[in-house]
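User: Hello! My lab partner asked me to get a predicted holo structure for this protein. The small molecule is fe (ii) ion, SMILES included with the sequence. Please write out the structure tokens.
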Amino acid sequence: MKTPEKFALKVKDKIRAQINSATSNKHLYSQKDFLYERKGPWPQPSPVHPWGESPAVIHVPFREVADWWLWIGLRYMATLPLAPFYYLKAKIIPGLKEVTNKEFEDLLNYSMMSKFLSDQLDEEDWRVFSDYNKDEREWFIVDLDAVRVVKTFPGIYASASKTLLYKEGERFIVQAIYIKDTETVFDISEDSDAWELAKYFVLQGGALCATLVVHPLLHFPFDSINAISKTSLPKEHVLFKLLSPHFRFTLPLENAVLNYKSSLLQEKWWMVYAPYPGGPAGLRDLLVEGYKGIKGNLSYPPFSYSLNSPSVEGKYGIYLKSYYEVFYKFVSEILSDVEDGDFWITKWSDYCHQHVNDFPKGNDIFKGDTLVKAVTTYLFTVTVAHATDHYNYGILDKRQVPLRLRQAPPKKGDKMMKRSKLVKAWDQMKYSMADNLFFSPTTVTKLIDANYKFKCPRRRKAVITFKKDLIDLDRKLKKEGIEYMPLNKISASIQF
Ligand SMILES: [Fe+2]
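Assistant: Hello! Below are the structure tokens for the protein in complex with fe (ii) ion.
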């Protein structure tokens, strides 16, 4: 740039800074340089449960709400007329399907429910499974204790449960199921009606905990970062450019789920898309169990912003870790020339720290690779981790993984009613609708198409390398038989 031009730009910046309340002379950004002129969305205590749920963003800019309605809300409306067809389908093919022991074990080993596998057996777990020798095997537990807060409707049942497994080679072998409501342990060797019914209660508990306890932790705590970044980072800042392709649709979606009267969490009888077994109070308590954790239960620690890839057993864990590493490499390259103590990142980090448990403070964000890890966690979570949970849950056979059950939890010797009667057509219709609308992913913007708008050639090259790395990983995982979600369906943001 020629000297007179440089001088003119400097003068312009100085004037702009003075009349637009720049933070200091050193930081020549005016209000106009921010997406919403520093008047954008911001987190606040959750209106429904200020101390039990993560902070929520309830004042969402109109243009974001309109964008969401156009691309997502209208699809919901257009899908509603499908309800009678799903009802008819459930009448023609009624009830549940058999779940063999092998299928049951596969679901706990390989589906997104493998997130529940834990080797942290606590006192309560060993009290329940006291008949088994602690030292004999490498024991694991699938603890679905959170289900106890669900208050079911008359004639519909759910129960907390614990499933005991042991590791043999790479596989987790099911040994026994404990059903909390009847305080009964069923061993796999029993081969009885009660065992068959117990498996459905575990899978129902898995579905409830998947959709309302652990999956929400990929949604709601991250909303604060979405809002804070839009409001506090200048549009030209490298961190804003890196994060912003991953913001779209999320805030209006979350607000609709958490606060709209028409949300499936309201679980009114007439809501053809609300599939859960009980009313809104119990369902919201599931969210609280996930966010606050369950005291004394090692399977349910409170939410903490992680600076590492999620610790998940089995193939799903390998899949998630592999993607996390690709994001880490990309973020490292993009942020490699960010100065230590960057003013805007320090402020951003402090704001996030105020609203997101264990998010690093501005003082700590420049220590080692903390910044890279914090940003990697955000990008990875709102894209791969979130979308793949949906995709995998979406392909589960809903006639094997029910959300409602019409028979009480089993005691020893109980006979199971006919599978065709275990759920009603109305239950299955609601489930199919929810699956179509909310559980199965409907990707509007793709991760692989993310447009970062970097001007610097080094960063543009890093984006090309990142996308190539994603494609290579997708192919490599497929070859290894670790297929969870095709890359070209992974969304760029939380949009379902
Ligand atoms: Fe989701």
